User: Fold these one by one.
Assistant:
Number 1:
Amino acid sequence: MTVTTELPQVLVIDDEMGPRESLRMLLKPNYRVHTADNVEAGLRILREKKPDAVISDIRMPGTSGIEGLRKIREIDPHVAVIMLTGFGALETAKEALRLGANDYISKPFDAREMREVISRNVERTRLHRTGVNAATEIKELNNRLLKELAQKERLASLGQASAEFVHDLGNPLTIVWGYVQLLAKKLEESEKENGAANQTSKELNIIEQNVRLCRELLTMWQSYGSVEASPHKPISVAQIVSEVVKGVSPMAVQNGVQLDCEICDDPCTLLGESVQITRAIQNVIINALQASAEKKGKVAVSCERKDFYVDVRVQDTGYGITPAQMAKIFDPYFTTKQGKSGTGLGLYITKKVLEDHNGSIKVDSTPQVGSTFTIRLPLLNNN
Ligand SMILES: Nc1ncnc2c1ncn2[C@@H]1O[C@H](COP(=O)(O)OP(=O)(O)OP(=O)(O)O)[C@@H](O)[C@H]1O
Ligand SMILES: [Mg+2]
């Protein structure tokens, strides 16, 4: 609430100098008084000064007080207007009240009565204005709350829709899973009959692994928000890298990128979650393939055991990363692949997963030459 220490303002409109100046003298100690000798001049002051009360003569040459009253109301519907009427002109006073005046005083006026009427009316305007301000504030607050509520509802329904989506996705995926198993079995039988393993069963194996990954990702999503994280188990990083590379190799072929892989003999065992580590490594390798596609470049993946940790290095000859981009690549939703289905979540997820496993990720890049991402993970002590 604003506290005004300034004097209230009163506007006096009267063509006769006598009453106008006597009102000024009378009100000066308690009010800032503005005067005008005709309606038009009065209206200008009204617009400019926003007085708390207007005292206007009814009978004036040019625009009359009644016409002036109508114009005053158009400019300020809430200012108190007191009409000065000629002695005994009760009918005119009534007419003025009907047209929106708040009070009237007959001329010649009594000083004490005049002070009382003005003080009452100034108070009325102020109360009205504070009320209007409060009402406006409440309205604004209401609008803001309604907007926030609508946004929250949208987010909630998005959450609900995603939950339903994840649930519904589970069904066809289970069917795909079943058929993949069936196909694998049939293939195995025909291989037994023919006595030779063929390439198709290897490809089917990769499909099977990736459908399993999808199922595990869905389960992970469904348990999102549950406090208990799934327990860490001994997992082989070397095996995960090899599986991820196998999984993405058709993508490399499609993009004309040469994909090389060098994995050490050690399993590189650590305590962790295999689904998480898989997606962390997958994101980095897919990025490298995407970056190298245009130049039909090379991606080299290596997995090398050091004393207490393992380094997974993904080196590409792609378009590289500028220093400005470098500062943002791990931020959620940062992507330079707009319109090409990039969400900008890949590296953010990777970094989060690695941190959960006490690991780290490092990047070296030269624009137009290529990039190297190095993932470092601590190994289980006793292997
Ligand atoms: N190997 C790379 N070479 C060049 N730029 C890269 C490389 N890896 C990441 N980037 C840059 O980092 C950005 C963020 O990568 P991130 O994996 O987080 O998202 P994205 O690949 O754009 O989208 P998404 O992973 O969701 O498909 C990329 O858009 C790209 O600009
Ligand atoms: Mg990515």
Number 2:
Amino acid sequence: MDDYFLPSHKPVLLKEVLHFLNLKQGDVIFEGTLGGAGHTIEIIKAIAPTGKLIGVDLDSQALSTATRVLKNYSDNVTLIKDNFANVGGILKRLGISFIDGFFLDLGLSLDQIERSGRGFSYIRDEKLDMRFDPEASKRAYTVVNEYPEEKLREIFYKYGEERWASRVARNIVEYRRFKKIESTGELVEIVKKSIPYSERYKRGHPAKRVFQAIRIEVNEELENLEKALEEGFRVLRSGGRMVVISYHSLEDRIVKQKFSTFSGKCICPPGLPVCACGAEKKAEIITKKVVTPSMEELQENPNSKSAKLRAIEKV
Ligand SMILES: C[S@@+](CC[C@H](N)C(=O)[O-])C[C@H]1O[C@@H](n2cnc3c(N)ncnc32)[C@H](O)[C@@H]1O
């Protein structure tokens, strides 16, 4: 497969990312989601010639595209195939104790959806895969063909907020009694048949939520995000910024809650006479309101529609 990350991809909320990272020449920045290096190149321009960016992605195609896009800045970048949840270990191996900025642009890129052939899209008929890292062991095929009905139901409900989770899970297990589910096309048909016709197209494509749920499960997206925020915050220098773009409510909820905890918000049940949760102010939230794409960006890049950016500064 040729490189499917195209440098022509439009980075989402680019101006805002650069603004909230508050970049200075010489900064050390960790970026956990290189993709087509759309944000990366602009970050590097702002920290060069003395700054350093550590860029990570699970998809080796992202690293080869980034290597090409960033060829004139090779002294300023270190590119690593790894999980952003391992930010602590990655920096330790590089001998870096603290960073000035931490950036994540979550989820997957349009390039991966449209050209990776890994079954991320419910519109194409491809193999059930959905791994960001093609070498990882858990694939969508494993989830769909091997998980028990109860676990499937829970995933569709929790990670897809799918109202018809029970029916979809039951129909998948029923189908499996006769034949393995090999392709995204087969899965889409099962999902469609599980949703009553009058409800089928009410919330976008009928398979959208089930696909999101399976992708989250395959790539352990929510666990990785929680770990990355904890670890990333630990290695952030005082005055350093953490900026995260999320694309669905489950991710955004985690970012919002973590940032709120870092900012010292008490999470004790109401009515306690004194705080017992140990809340301590370790950061300032600098996006008092969540930041979303401008009308202009939405017109230029409709795919940015669901993006939400939040940022904090470590005190
Ligand atoms: C939305 S894209 C990034 C696009 C990039 N900002 C750009 O403008 O070109 C997200 C990228 O994060 C990667 N990714 C997702 N989860 C990851 C994880 N846990 N660790 C490392 N990379 C991850 C995906 O493979 C994908 O390339």
Number 3:
Amino acid sequence: MSAVIDAAVQAFAAVQSWIFLTIVEPLLFRFDGAGVMEEAYDGIEFFLLGLVQIAMLYAILRPLEAWRPAERWTHRRDVGVDVLYTFLHRLGLFSLGLFFVLDPAVDALAGHLRLEGIAGFNLDDLWPGVTSIPLVAFALYLLVLDLANYWIHRGQHRLRWWWALHSLHHSQRQMSLWADDRNHLLDDLVRDGLFASIAVVIGVQPGQFVLLLIATRSVETLQHANLRLSFGRWGERLLASPRFHRRHHAIGDGHEGAYRGCNFAVLFPLWDVLFGTANFEPGYPATGIRDQLDSDGRAGRDYGRGFWAQQWLGLRRLVGR
Ligand SMILES: [Zn+2]
Ligand SMILES: [Zn+2]
């Protein structure tokens, strides 16, 4: 078994250096980018990990979707654009790029504040030595960042301008393993920017950040899959399942009521339980937004079918059209 893993790791490293030497390095020399060689090399690693992750999730989830779908469809027309979103976002170095931009900026700011006699925040301050125990540090960061994700997501539903963008994510009536990254690019920028800033501020190291992203996104892919799958009475309360997140996308429950929705947690439903937004009602309801439905003969709101239409209509909603 370890021989197989070794071979895989070696193959991965070989592909990484091949891409670097034949494509990225010549480009960087050409465009005066010799200063970011190291970041570019790490970037390729992230890109390849993204590819491997998508391939593995597809290999596992696609047969499960075919076997036990939450919903049977007569066509898969609307899934195609979500595949595009997934490749764009997961391989587009979006969050990682932001992290590498923000990391030195926050370091510089922290250095400046220290000169002024103001100390920065780090988990080590609360619990000395904790960040040198990798597994504990990882678990703590995961928890803190997931809490941040919960409140970011509440904001996406609560603030009018943010919902104008986030509603694109909710407009998918055919949820599938590809649906997670169906977002407005501006929404991605704000959300990923906030997420990476919080990660930098609490002292997450770049290597850990990549692992945190991979863990979070794997669960996100799973919970959007068209799967008749719940984790059972207690499991549902420990980790967000496809059924739990489907309720968040349900017409009516997902974006209406006192909190403009329910089940906002990305990983841990604990936050929804604590802040009164959990809904563990059984069933696999239809997904979408109420204003997409026809009302008294008139067609509902159109969120667009193709990528550019969706992005454009999102901008129009943002300015109140
Ligand atoms: Zn949402
Ligand atoms: Zn979702």
Number 4:
Amino acid sequence: MGRGYDSLVGTWDAVVDVSNVCWSPQLPPQGRRTPFWHRLELVLDAWRELHGNGVRYTLVADDSLVRALDNPAEYRGLRDNGELLVRPVADSLILDLARDSGLHVITRDHYVDYRPRHPWIENSPEKFHCWSMTDGRVRIEPLGIVHASAQTISRAIESKDLQRTRIHSNDPQHRKILGTRWKCVNMLCVEAAQWQDQLLTWPLVTPEGTVLCPSCHRPLLALGPRDPLYEAVVEHRESGAEIMRFPLEVNSPVTVGRGAAIKGVNLAGDQDSFRTAVMRVSRQHLLVWIEDLNGATRRMVAVDLGSRNGTAVERWTGAAFDRPKPLPPSRETIIGSKDRLILGGTVNLRLSGKHYVTYPGKSEPAALAVPFWPGAENNATVSG
Ligand SMILES: [Zn+2]
């Protein structure tokens, strides 16, 4: 970073991966795995401190960000002014802008899935910058783009043909694995690009008890115990066959969709047999989370992210499922513990009965277990 460049107008103009910044648990409030608008200001300030107040930013966000953001008014204000560009998947626009306008990129994402379409990334590592916290301050650092071999890219995109070891929650060793937060540290792996900075799906476990990333098969880093934890089950609607399960931590929203580059849970992961059904699911289809109500009870909340083939809810009446009702797009809908969501008409998503409390010696009131959550009669669409 030669000082001579600082005086040239435009030399340090940057495009900012706003969703990636706002979600980053590396920034204060550190460790929180939901997006905060203030994190964007911290990073922009750190960049200005290095490169002067004259730098201009192009801000690009995924449109799902606003659904989980602490301060949606700020987001909407900037979007309506044209100061924040919003796309269903922001990465393509970020990379197009960076390439065409020579902008720096502020992100923690290594854009591994985009390397074939953007070969310039590997030739321009100096254009990519990330952030860290050092001595209580936000610092800008080189992201450290490294060459991804063609083999790594195809593995990252396909992430299939994996051998899955069944994890048994009554096995103490496996229970500890389920209750641990994991991170893939292979920067060329799609799992390393998750906004929550942790693996969003269950890990692979070998018969010897080694814990591996389900995408790249490398050993995972343990981050410590998870927050209280539930589990979602995804099923092929026509046959009832299970497609996958994934963990849901309290107050940690997860995007569910299709494709390795979605930044969320990719339903098109492993199994060819469900391909036709999963093809009806949009790339960014649903945002889902477990909401805590004053520690007294919990509930699942879902937002359809404007998916092409829609989401419906089947309410459990106590004896049978009611007729499916479409979820209004972009609105929060409370999902009862026995209700089912239907994605694209072809894929069901529901809660399993599992409830894990991961801190040793801690327990929670029975009301927090899934079977004791309020039923469908108490459920409604709550807010925009
Ligand atoms: Zn990985």
